[in-house]
Amino acid sequence: MNDAVSISRATSLSRAGSRRSTVSRSQSLVRKNIQPHDLRPSDILIERFTAWKIIVKQLIAYFEGIADIENNVAREMTKLGAVIQVPFRSGNQFLGEGGLQDIFYGIRDKTRAIADQHANLGRTVDGSIVQHLQKLRVEIKAHIKNIQNDTGKLATAVAKERELSAKLIGDLGTNISILKNTPLNVTARTDPYVANQAVARQLVKQVHTENALQKSLLLTQASSAMFEASLIQALQSAWATFAEWRTRMDNSIRELWGALERDMSALPPDREWIAFAAREDHLVDPETPLRNPEHITYPSKEDPSVIPVHTGLLERKKRYTRTYREAYYVLTPAGFLHEYASSDPALADKPQFSLFLPLCTLGPPSAPSAKSHKFHIEERKDGTGSTHTGSLRGLRNTLTGKAGGSGRAWAFRARSHDDMMEWWNDIRMLCARYLVASEQMERSGPVAAAVRAAGYTSEDEGGGETEEEGSSVEEEQDEEDDAVYEEARDQPEDEAGPPEYSHAQGLEYGAPGYPADKKVGASQEGATVSRKPSKRQQEKAPEGRPPHVAAVDGEDAAATSGAENL
After folding, report:
1. Eight-state DSSP code of residue 542
2. CB neighbour class for 310 (10 Å; exposed up to 12, middle 13-18, buried from 19)
3. How many Å separate Cα 360 from the centre of its chain?
4. pLDDT by residue (tens digit) across 327-367?
5. Exposed (0-12), middle (13-18) or buried (19+): which is 103, by Cβ within 10 Å?
6. What stretch of H or E contains 419?
7. Full-model pTM
8. Which three-class secondary structure state does DSSP give residue 140?
9. How far apart are CA 192 and CA 186, in angstroms?
10. Dihedral of the alpha carbons of 177, 179, 182, 188, in degrees to the nearest 10
């Protein structure tokens, strides 16, 4: 029981500390004079109606906000109605009556009516509901003051009686102690019996005072219950008034919007246009045919220089990734090979890559038996021929870094050999020069047969002679790096000189036009000897000219003769 009392006292003290700003000074004095639990009912009532005062104040602010909103809506709707300018200022574009202009008259007038409805609701809320709630808040303050006044005097009396009771009980204990210790010093006023009678009378008086305080608290509770019920009814009445006016406004506005909707839907969609078409004589005839882009004609449209020589898909080898990327290529009569991202001119209006073929050299096409069908285009030595940075490695001389190598080179691959040859033949007609692959030399004779038959028995020699796949000479070379090209000039056959090779640039030539062997260092001082021309030199020699035999020193001649003997 004592624990419960202590807990209730602690709770009352904590609540009193948290709400000290909401209680009056008299309430604080009452708390100092008596114990907190004796006035706990009155404190609770005061706290409750203080909370009522707060929520009524919040509701007042809420309805004041609604009134402001309605007034603002009314002002904005009035401005919105002024946006509609009728009659129309567009001349005779629309009908004067029975058309769209009548609809806009209704929009302007009904928008103003809607603004009036919102303004009426704002005035009602501000002048009726808010004023009623403010009066209710004043009544709550008066009720809190009555509770403080009714319980304050009784609480002070109870505090005084308790103090007097505590004093008399203390005197009774002192008198009993004097009697026990010094009986001869006891007087009539300090007689424990007399002191006990005084304590009994005082406690009875204290109890009566406390009972009066309790009755007062019970009456305050009953009156507070009735007052709170009246508060609820007042709030209900205020909200019912707001709902009634709100419903009236909503119904009126709904009717106005419905009338606008009916007027707008009743207008035939083609009434204005029919009247407009009947008045105007400059409208386009619906039977006029549309223009066809395919029938567009303009000067130089059919000029041969604008008609492509060849179009189609090719794959170009990229420089760094060494992979092929397919694109749409156009070969023009001006000598350009343009690369487009798409064959649709609407998607790719500018070329991504261009080569000026009159300043380039066309490499030979791959053989029909090759795995990939490709050819190369190489720049001239001066670096011209490309209007875009090259993305492929050069030919063999460019890669190996030999002197006299040409510029950049690009590799192109087609889907089939026939497609590649069509491209190659068309490009050949526009290039400065083109190359064709030299014919492979057939090796025959007892030495070649012995080499091919090495490791076989005599029964297998026949098969070894016919098998040609193992010959390293006839294997397919690796792309363009191992190919040897022969230049085919655009000159008559009788004026064509000896074939030139890109790897032979920068060398000295002999009398027949072939490179002469050149030794450096001490080998130039040795004796020179002549040797018999080889079979390849005999085959490569031009018709009507003797094969060229280079002079070599003694050591090289000995080495050469030894190799031939082997």
Report:
1. P
2. middle
3. 47
4. 999 999 999 999 999 988 888 889 998 999 999 999 999 99
5. middle
6. helix 417-428
7. 0.42
8. helix
9. 9
10. 120
